[in-house]
Amino acid sequence: MKALYLIRYGEIGLKGKNRRFFENTLTANIRRALRDVAECRVLQQHSRHFVEVLSGDAAAVAARLQEVFGIVSLSPVITAALSMAEIKAAAEREFSKVAKPGLRFKVNTRRANKKFPLLSQQVSAEVGAHLLRTFPGLQVDVHEPEAVLDVEIREEEAYIYTERLPGPGGLPVGVAGKGLLLLSGGIDSPVAGWMTLKRGVKLEAVHFHSYPYTSERSKEKVIDLCRELARYGGKIRLHVAHFTEIQEELRLKTPERLLVTLMRRMMFRLAERLAQQQGALALITGESLGQVASQTMESLNVIERVTQIPVLRPLIGLDKQEIMDLSVKIGTYPISIRPYEDCCTIFLP
Questions:
Q1: What residues have CB less than 8 Å from 69, skipping those under 6 apart?
Q2: 83-87: long-range contacts at Cβ-Cβ below 8 A with a sequence spacing of 24 or more?
Q3: Minimal CA–CA distance to 4: which of 87, 95, 90, 77?
Q4: What would the pLDDT profile of 123-163 be if each residue is shown by its tens digit?
């Protein structure tokens, strides 16, 4: 039997006239994400998306879907014809995965097909009674169930499932314009990129490279971070800016206490020029507030004054531990902690 996943989204359902654009973007992103995983068919029906696994590893498909922004949750479902006998038989097969004596359960029915002869409560009652007869020792508990069997009655068929796998939420990447991420190779900036992707922003990235003070391995680390972020946001173009001569000039001609601030002002100038060339509408950085001396309110104010486009700082309200936890969750932490210095650390006082 081919595996079938029902996809749910959240914020997209609140959109008005441009809702179709959001849905179509999500469909395209799902197809892109699954292209190298398995042969799948993606369907868009009545405020729902379905992914049918035609061949390949269904578990790998589910794992990849859990990384697609815009998806709130997904469920592996089985289908049934629109008759109570077929629905009960499918419910029995699905519930056998979790049934055990003493299990508290309920049946939840959503009747999108108003032509179906029974009301939602009637379907739930009949299916629940069938499960009680089939699996001895079950207990009905509609308030605090340990297991929920969901029945969705649609126009063509019914969908039955017991499992909900969480998705990352957010908006489909590509619905909110393009931004340019200043990607250093540390822990913070990849997390900032991930959080920006979650709000539907398509990313390009720029890395300031200080060869020979920083090694080729340092650049490779940043490339690997881009690849990791691309799992969530699709293709990310990485621009590598050679920054050595500028840093050396600043080190010779500026007071030591101002060096980091002036370097970052120069980075922002260059990044803004690149953003304008690439059609990016904002810069994105991994800066938080008060984490280091260059991230005080005064320093951020002075650094940002050199730009005319918005500077987004998704991490501004997070502390270091929260950022590290997110880095572990999204898979960038092991790459970020590789012991290769970046251009912001080699000339520190």
A1: 29, 168, 169, 170, 171, 172, 173, 197, 198, 200, 232, 233
A2: 84/118, 84/123, 84/126, 86/158, 87/123, 87/127, 87/151, 87/153, 87/158, 87/160
A3: 77
A4: 999 999 999 999 999 999 999 999 999 999 998 899 999 99
Q: Kindly state the percentage of the chain with pLDDT values over 70.
A: 96
User: Of 27, 22, 315, 345, nearest to 190 (Cα)?
Assistant: 315
DSSP one-letter code for 15? -
> Residue 228: left (phi > 0), alpha (psi -120 to 50), or beta?
alpha
Are 172 and 12 in contact by the 8 Å Cβ rule? The answer is yes
Write out the two tokens for 242.
């050679």
pLDDT in tens, 316-340: 999 999 999 999 999 999 999 987 6
Per the DSSP assignment, residues forming a β-bridge with 90 are none
Residues counted in the chain: 349
Which of 107, 51, 57 lies closest to 84, judged by CA? 107
Cβ pair 77, 159 in contact under 8 A = yes
Residue in 64, 69, 82, 86 with CA at minimum distance from that of residue 5: 64
What b/e sequence results for 257-292 when a residue is b if at least 16 CB atoms lie within 10 Å of its CB, and e otherwise?
Answer: eebbbbbbbbbbebbbebbeeeebebbbbbbbeebe
**Strand (E) positions, the chain?**
3-8, 39-45, 48-55, 73-80, 104-111, 139-140, 147-153, 158-161, 165-166, 178-182, 202-209, 237-242, 283-284, 311-312
* CB contact at 8 A, 11 and 171: yes
